[in-house]
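Please fill in the sequence for the structure shown.

STRUCTURE ENCODING:
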């Protein structure tokens, strides 16, 4: 346990510390409460099974912690980055179920998306092993922030139509939910745990407003069992349609890898500060980037095999750990067990599924926009030179191909058919990423400086 000296009070928990059982369970439940809103919202938006998603979140976290040799304290929940391509899978292959407002779970579509989620895990593992071998700096040359940041922008903005489509179910409820969620996120900052739960508070507020408007149906909760087996499904490996979208799903890792790395750096900073205070050697887990990506991949493979949403380590939980100064891996494992147990509570899943579409639409307007703005934040934090024509060319091309393709092309597909990989056409986000990478490679092979072009200075 982290103390400044033998007689000083407890100041926090380092990753290797194991708190007493009471503290471990209460701190673990707090971690679950923090990840719960966003993780569940992703399942609702993509019509995955809520119980499976909760169970996979818990088990995936435990597996990732073990793969990371209990050195990297991160909690894994559902990733918003994959929503666009998963919705593409659903609307293309199971439109009857996905477009039915009364349907809360589309198993046939889930099984198709699972193949891509498994492939995402494999992709993350391969990148992690590559980083361990060649170092992150070389990887950044192929996937610089001008690509990853703009892909994040595309992912968020491309979902605008879906967000407004859900909100249109009841504009009044949607906008009340949106405004209250924004109010909670802005005015409750720094107010402890409650300040870290604006999405949960917004969902609850929207739900209460929906009750006033009489658009909540409680019959599924009444008929649901208290305990039930989550709808675990196996990936549709034998379905050619699954492989047509699998590569598209996996390439979204281009956006999530920088996100995961940023979270690792954040946690490393906090943990080493605590180590300094208690006069221990800094752990410098920021040097474990490759191992962290391998752990990310193992989490995604687990989600893909069970039928849970594609995952990522959660910044919300990182912030909670920073506030409470609790970085105990044992606590995160306890949180994983609690999440797994919640996956079997049938009435909880049924209650979550009674959330009106308009409420999720209000939340989605905010959340999807934030995804896009995080891409902008990445460009700013990495001080990308937008006066450089190379960066302007890459960024502009990625944005227009990605956003325009999703909004203007049928099913969001470019009509360039590639046997086995993209037999129906290339999804807009994937096509934008591929073109961005190729442009960057061109500039690496033929740098403008070779032709006497001087690089333009960036703003200081």
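FILLED IN BY: designer on duty
SEQUENCE:
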């Amino acid at each position: 346990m982290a103390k400044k000296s033998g007689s000083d009070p407890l100041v926090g928990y380092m990753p290797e510390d194991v708190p007493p059982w009471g503290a471990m369970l209460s701190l673990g439940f707090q971690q679950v409460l923090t990840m719960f809103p966003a993780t569940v919202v992703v399942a609702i938006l993509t019509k995955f099974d809520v119980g499976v998603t909760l169970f996979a979140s818990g088990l995936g976290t435990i597996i990732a912690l073990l793969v990371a040799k209990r050195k990297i304290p991160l909690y894994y929940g559902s990733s918003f980055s994959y929503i666009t391509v998963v919705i593409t899978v659903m609307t293309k292959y199971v439109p009857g179920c996905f477009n039915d407002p009364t349907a809360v779970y589309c198993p046939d579509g889930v099984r198709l998306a699972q193949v891509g989620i498994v492939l995402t895990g494999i992709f993350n593992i391969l990148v992690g092993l590559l980083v361990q071998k060649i170092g992150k700096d070389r990887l950044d040359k192929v996937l610089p922030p001008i690509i990853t940041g703009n892909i994040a922008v595309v992912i968020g903005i491309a979902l605008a139509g879906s967000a407004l489509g859900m909100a249109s179910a009841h504009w009044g409820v949607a906008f009340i939910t949106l405004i209250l969620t924004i109010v909670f996120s802005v005015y409750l900052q720094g107010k402890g745990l409650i300040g870290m739960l604006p999405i949960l508070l917004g969902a609850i507020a929207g739900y209460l407003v929906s009750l006033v408007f009489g658009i909540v149906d409680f019959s599924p909760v009444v008929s649901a069992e208290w305990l039930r087996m989550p709808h675990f499904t196996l990936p549709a490996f034998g379905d050619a349609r699954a492989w047509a979208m699998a590569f598209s799903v996996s390439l979204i890792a281009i956006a999530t890898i920088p996100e995961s790395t940023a979270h690792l750096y954040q946690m490393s900073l906090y943990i080493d500060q605590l180590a300094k205070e208690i006069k221990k050697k800094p752990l410098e887990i920021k040097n474990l980037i490759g191992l962290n990506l391998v752990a990310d991949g193992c989490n995604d493979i687990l989600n893909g095999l069970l039928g849970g949403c594609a995952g990522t380590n959660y910044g919300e939980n990182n912030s909670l750990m920073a506030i409470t100064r609790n970085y105990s891996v044992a606590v995160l494992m306890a949180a994983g067990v609690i999440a797994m147990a919640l996956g079997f509570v049938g009435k909880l899943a049924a209650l979550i599924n009674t959330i009106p579409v308009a409420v999720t639409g209000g939340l989605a307007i905010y959340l999807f926009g934030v995804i896009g703005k995080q891409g902008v934040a990445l460009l700013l934090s990495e001080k990308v030179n937008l006066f450089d024509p190379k960066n302007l060319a890459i960024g502009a091309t990625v944005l227009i191909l990605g956003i325009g393709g999703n909004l203007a092309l049928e099913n969001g597909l470019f009509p360039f058919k590639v046997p086995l990989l993209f037999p129906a056409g290339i999804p807009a986000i994937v096509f934008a990423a591929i073109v961005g990478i190729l442009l960057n490679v061109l500039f690496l092979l033929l740098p403008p400086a070779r032709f006497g072009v001087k690089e333009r200075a960036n703003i200081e």
